[in-house]
Amino acid sequence: MSISDDFHVYDTTLRDGAQQEGLALSVADKIAIAQHLDELGVGFIEGGWPGAVPKDTEFFERARTELHLRNATFAAFGATCKPGTPAADDQQVAALRDSGAGVVTLVAKSHDAHVERALRTTLDENLRMVADTVRHLRDNGQRVFLDTEHFFDGYRANRAYALEVVRVAAEAGADVVALCDTNGGTLPRELQDVVRDVLESTGARLGIHCHNDAGCAVANSIAAVEAGVTHVQGTINGYGERTGNADLLAIVANLELKRGMELLPAGNLAESFRIAHAIAEVTNVPPSSRAPYVGLSAFAHKAGLHASAIKVDPDLYQHTDPARVGNDMRMLVSEMAGRASIELKGRELGFDLSNDRELVGRVADRVKDLESRGYTFEAADASFSLLLTEEVDGRRPSYFDVESWRVITESRADGEAVSESTVKLVAAGEREIVTGEGNGPVNALDHALRTAIERAYPAVNKFELVDYKVRILDQGHGTDAVIRVLIETADGEGSWVTVGVGHNIVEASWEALVDGFTFGLLRHKEVAR
Ligand SMILES: CC(=O)SCCNC(=O)CCNC(=O)[C@H](O)C(C)(C)COP(=O)(O)OP(=O)(O)OC[C@H]1O[C@@H](n2cnc3c(N)ncnc32)[C@H](O)[C@@H]1OP(=O)(O)O
Ligand SMILES: CC(=O)C(=O)O
User: Fold this and answer.
1) Sheet holding 430-438, edge to edge
2) Which residue among 119, 350, 417, 522 is least packed, with the fewest CB closer than 10 Å?
3) Confidence of residue 479 (pLDDT cuts 50, 70, 90)
4) Are 372 and 389 in contact (CB under 8 A)?
5) Percent of the chain with pLDDT over 70
6) Does residue 66 have a pLDDT over 60?
7) How far, CA to CA in Å, does 97 sit from each of 64, 74, 89, 168, 453?
8) Residue 71: what are its φ and ψ, rounded to 5°?
């Protein structure tokens, strides 16, 4: 049974979410996602369409033994029986019956044109298919929910018939009839009027299933709840066919935080950020940084004026406390920063700048100047931290003095190109002249630099370049344009990003590389020698 039957949080990531372009889930992926969903505390997990999609059939088989759900109940999704076929003789209905799922969610036509043109049957036969299939599964001891496909378009075309489908399903024993905005084109006020009418006309328990084609899926779902539905469907990260389904985490956060409803087990809303990102890892679809509540940018502040108000009270520029969904407020330092942005970012990085107005102003001016030359600090916290340390201490943190570096790339007879670099520097009083080889110039410089300083600073062996991004800044200039390089370095416990800018891609990379190593040594509390 679900946590509370009064209100259903119904997740369809594994079925409708998997209908998203570019998303392909293995059975193991589906099992991993189901575990996350159960941990989050949704009431129902729609696992797929057994009998139609072989992977989904296998998922239900394996789920029976491999998953021990604490909060959720599995729902198997599938269509009503075929026209002219009794439900008891329909093979696909049999697969739903045999899936072992406690709930079967049937999809049924409720739009007359779909019945006549897509299903190619009569309106009465469709009603028979709905009633027969619901009764058959109920007799098998399963709970039945019914998704009324294209309900809102169907209601517009033929209200009496759309209502009749809801009535017939409820009378046959469907616990919930979910009204589907399948094409996602309905707007909130109209949707709310329709939901109210269906509730009054049929008395059935209603649910809502929205798609985001008009950008209104979450708003429509909330509007439906406000009109009286007690079952809401959606997907994590809004995955789904075309523009996606309603984002379930945004719906739940809105209802819990703004309507005072208790939908997840106590405290679990704060797991939203972690679970949205963990599921994105499994789907291998980069999470949208601008997703409401759980996006990395959802509570990131860039404008100086915003920061100055946030310094007084974060609520002045945030609709809710990010901690309530497990997210964090972040200050972005850029050309749009003012003194308050610098002060708050400094605090985030461990510097108390509150009493040094002049220093903060100087840092803001330097950031604006550097950004006008192509640097970006909002993505390169580590370079900003070095800049700040330089202003606070009066000198840039430095662990080695570079005399010179050079790199050549050679194309060999076998067609392979390899790079070789030489780095000359002084570290801990010793002059080092080191060569490094690599499959590219940055790789060769990385090898030479770490070899040159590893004797003085062994921590450098933990550093690894995990990401490298290049961007041409003034695209009109072609190959002599200004280049920006962002390098992400990791040490097994965390990662940091540094920036370099130059007309030469290797020069820009070298600057980012040196900053990356310098910040890493600072992070490891190495003492400059
Ligand atoms: C709105 C939604 O997202 S609903 C979920 C949709 N999901 C999917 O389609 C994913 C899984 N689908 C599949 O694996 C396949 O499409 C299947 C197995 C369901 C059907 O495959 P096929 O039999 O090859 O036919 P096809 O894919 O062309 O589907 C159309 C058939 O389904 C029938 N059909 C469509 N809707 C329904 C319904 N609600 N109830 C019963 N039959 C239906 C059509 O009448 C047509 O039948 P016909 O071939 O006998 O004329
Ligand atoms: C059932 C379903 O996924 C829809 O109508 O959109």
Assistant:
1) 400-411, 417-427, 430-438
2) 350
3) low
4) no
5) 98
6) yes
7) 14, 13, 12, 20, 67
8) -115, -35
Average pLDDT over all residues of the chain: 95
Q: Is the CB of 245 under 6 A from ligand 2?
A: no
Q: Determine whether the shortest distance from the Cβ of 484 to ligand 1 is under 6 A.
A: no
- Ligand closest to 209 (CA) is 2
Cα–Cα distances in angstroms (integers) from residue 508 to residues 91, 442, 451, 499, 512, in the given order: 64, 10, 21, 8, 6
CB-hemisphere CA count at 13 Å for 344? 26
Task: Name every residue whose Cβ is closer than 8 Å to that of residue 200 and which is 6 or more positions away in sequence.
Answer: none
Residue 55 Cβ < 6 Å to ligand 1: no
Q: Which of 36, 16, 34 is nearest to 73 (CA)?
A: 34
Calculate how far, in angstroms, residue 52's C-alpha sits from the geometric centre of ligand 1: 9
Residue linked to tokens 């520097």: 425
Q: Are 47 and 38 in contact (CB under 8 A)?
A: no
For residue 120, which atom of ligand 1 is closest to its CA? 45
What is the residue type of 96?
Answer: L
Q: Is 266 helix (H, G, I), strand (E, B) or coil?
A: coil
Distance 416 CA to ligand 2 centre (A): 52
Q: Give the ligand whose atoms come closest to the C-alpha of residue 245.
A: 2
Q: Give the chain's radius of gyration (CA, Å).
A: 29
* pLDDT digits 0-9 by tens, 283-323: 999 899 999 999 999 999 999 999 898 989 999 999 999 99
Beta strands 44-48; 464-472: pairing state:
unpaired
Show the 3-state SS of 337-356. Answer: CCHHHHHHHHHHCCCCCCCC
ipTM score assigned to the predicted complex: 0.91
Residues 6+ apart with CB under 8 A from 484: 374, 375, 376, 470, 471, 473, 499, 500, 501, 508
Q: Is the overall model pTM greater than 0.90, yes or no?
A: no
* Protein residue closest via CA to atom 6 of ligand 2: 182
Q: Given ligand 2 and candidates 49, 130, 148, 209, which is best to mutate, with the most ligand atoms within 8 Å of its CB? A: 209
Phi, psi at residue 63, to the nearest 5°? Answer: -60, -35
Q: Measuring CA to CA, how many Å separate 203 from each of 168, 233, 252, 472?
A: 12, 20, 25, 61
Amino acid letter, residue 335: E
Ligand found nearest the CA of 179: 2
Which residues, 6+ apart, have CB-to-CB distance to 520 below 8 Å? 459, 460, 462, 463, 489, 491, 496
49 lines ligand 1 (CB under 6 A): yes
Question: Which residues, 6 or more positions from 150, have their beta carbon under 8 angstroms from its beta carbon?
Answer: 109, 110, 111, 114, 180, 182, 183
Q: Is the CB of 427 under 6 A from ligand 1?
A: no
Nearest residue (CA) to ligand 2, atom 3: 16
Mutate to test the pocket of ligand 1, among 13, 49, 133 (most ligand atoms within 8 A of CB): 49
